[in-house]
């Protein structure tokens, strides 16, 4: 029986050795893929660029350190469960880089409202009218990009022309207000997989109909983990809006999955910390990046 026990021990040792070797090979393979993905973004083309995970709900105008010729189409669909009605969101946006480190964006967001089946008569009086929310025009300039520090910073501006409700479109002017929104972005990658980003700035809303101003300040914090060897990530986006003496905060856990070389899908859940008027929400973003011909380093 000694030979049998010896054979079993040798077999177990062999299996353990192969398993350890497979795990090491898998780790090396993932590290290699991570390095190749980072190299493709940062070193294969000119000028320098740092790979950062981009938030999915309040996204950037263009990648930090954008290169001339890059462009991207986004389609977003969302649902928010409010206290007295449901809000359905839809958006289409096109972003592009006409020059290195400069990103521009055009966005059309739409909102539709429906009663949620409880006290329908009262809800019909409370829910807003359906509307094409606005025409958003935005620009973003990456003024600092450091591969050594794995850090990028940018400033930008969003101008939003608020449009009239669809019901009143023929009764009054088409534009009922303007939103001025300068912002600042700072992002850092920690090692190869962890990413942090802060997006912040004031927002000034001017109503042409009521001739008054509304002011707020937004702070959006992000933490993401990019899965080794892929473009997929898991993360948390925290949206905070401060207006007067109140702060509205929504936690948005999120997931991004690559379904093709140039097509990504982002899935976001929304969990407000105060549920007096807003409850849970969901959002999905389709991201399509047409191929372009950047300058390649030789």
Quick structural summary:
With 298 residues, the chain is α+β, with helices and mostly antiparallel strands. Helices cover 16% and strands 53% of the residues. A hairpin with a 6-residue loop joins strand 9 and strand 10 (233-243).
Topology, element by element:
Blueprint: H1 2-42, E1 71-82, E2 86-99, E3 102-114, H2 120-126, E4 131-132, E5 134-146, E6 151-163, E7 175-190, E8 194-207, E9 212-226, E10 233-243, E11 246-260, E12 263-272, E13 278-288
Antiparallel strand pairs: 1-2, 1-13, 2-3, 3-4, 3-5, 5-6, 6-7, 7-8, 8-9, 9-10, 10-11, 11-12, 12-13
Keywords: Signal
InterPro entries: HAEPLYID-like
Organism: Fibrisoma montanum
If you had to describe this structure to a student in words, what would you say it looks like?
The structure is a single chain. The chain is α+β, with helices and mostly antiparallel strands. The protein has two domains: 1-44; 52-288, Beta Barrel (Porin), CATH 2.40.160.40. Helix content is 16%, strand content 53%. The protein is built from two helices and 13 strands; from the N terminus they run αβββαββββββββββ. The chain has a twelve-stranded antiparallel barrel. A hairpin with a 4-residue loop joins strand 5 (134-146) and strand 6 (151-163). The longest helix has 41 residues, at 2-42. It is globular, with a radius of gyration of 24 Å. The N and C termini lie far apart (65 Å). 24% of the residues are buried.
């Amino acid at each position: 029986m000694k030979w049998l026990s010896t054979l079993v021990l040798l077999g177990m040792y062999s299996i353990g050795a192969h398993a350890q070797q497979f795990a090491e090979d898998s780790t090396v393979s993932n590290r290699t893929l991570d390095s190749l993905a980072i190299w493709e973004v940062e070193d294969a083309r000119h000028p320098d660029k740092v790979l950062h995970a981009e938030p999915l709900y309040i996204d950037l105008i263009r990648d930090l350190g954008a290169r001339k010729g890059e462009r991207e189409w986004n389609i977003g669909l969302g649902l928010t469960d409010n206290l007295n009605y449901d809000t359905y969101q839809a958006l289409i946006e096109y972003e592009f880089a006409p020059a290195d480190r400069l990103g521009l964006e055009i966005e059309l967001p739409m909102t539709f409202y429906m009663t949620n089946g409880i006290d329908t008569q009262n809800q019909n009086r409370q829910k807003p009218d359906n509307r094409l929310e606005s025409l958003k025009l935005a620009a973003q300039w990456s003024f600092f990009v450091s591969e050594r520090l794995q850090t990028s910073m940018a400033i930008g501006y969003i101008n939003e022309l608020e449009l009239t409700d669809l019901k009143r479109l023929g009764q009054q002017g088409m534009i009922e207000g303007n939103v001025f929104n300068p912002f600042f972005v700072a992002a850092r990658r920690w090692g190869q997989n962890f990413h942090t980003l802060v997006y912040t700035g004031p927002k000034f809303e001017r109503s042409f109909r009521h001739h008054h101003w509304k002011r707020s300040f937004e702070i959006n914090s992000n933490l993401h983990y990019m899965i080794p060897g892929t473009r997929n990530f898991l993360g948390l986006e925290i949206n905070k809006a401060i207006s007067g003496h109140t702060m509205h905060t929504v936690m948005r856990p999120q997931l991004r999955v690559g379904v093709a070389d140039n097509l990504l899908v982002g899935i976001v859940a929304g969990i407000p910390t105060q549920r007096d008027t807003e409850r849970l929400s969901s959002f999905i973003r389709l991201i399509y990046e047409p191929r372009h011909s950047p300058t390649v380093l030789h």
